[in-house]
Specification:
It is a single chain. The chain has 92 residues and is mainly alpha-helical. The chain has one domain: Ankyrin repeat-containing domain (Serine Threonine Protein Phosphatase 5, Tetratricopeptide repeat). The protein is 50% helix and 0% strand. It contains five helices and no strands. Helix 3 runs antiparallel to helix 4 (48-56) and helix 3 (38-45) packs parallel to helix 5 (71-89). Keywords: ANK repeat.
């Protein structure tokens, strides 16, 4: 799951990836080595469908990674970065 969320472009994320959570009983809050969870990765990579799916399955948005960031903070930062980049590109 972690690899799929990191490697896929948001528009290319295959919905079958959710099989691991829906059918296999995978814990949506299982941490990686740096305490990041699937919600952190989905948020950081801009996978809005995955974020919604994970939250619906009980992913904890209050859980922090090793840098003290929650999934919503990462998603907000990505949104702000994208908006700023688009704004600056108007003048390039």
């Amino acid at each position: 799951m972690f690899i799929a969320l990191q490697c896929c472009r948001p528009e290319a994320l295959n919905p079958s990836i959710f099989y691991f959570f829906d059918e296999c009983g995978t814990d949506v809050n299982s941490p990686a080595n740096d305490l990041s969870r699937p919600l952190h990765l989905a948020s950081r990579e801009g996978h809005t469908n995955a974020v919604q799916h994970l939250l619906e399955r009980g992913a904890g948005d209050s859980l922090k990674d090793s840098h003290g960031r929650t999934g919503s903070v990462l998603f907000r930062d990505l949104f702000l970065f994208t908006a700023l980049r688009q704004w600056f590109n108007k003048f390039a």
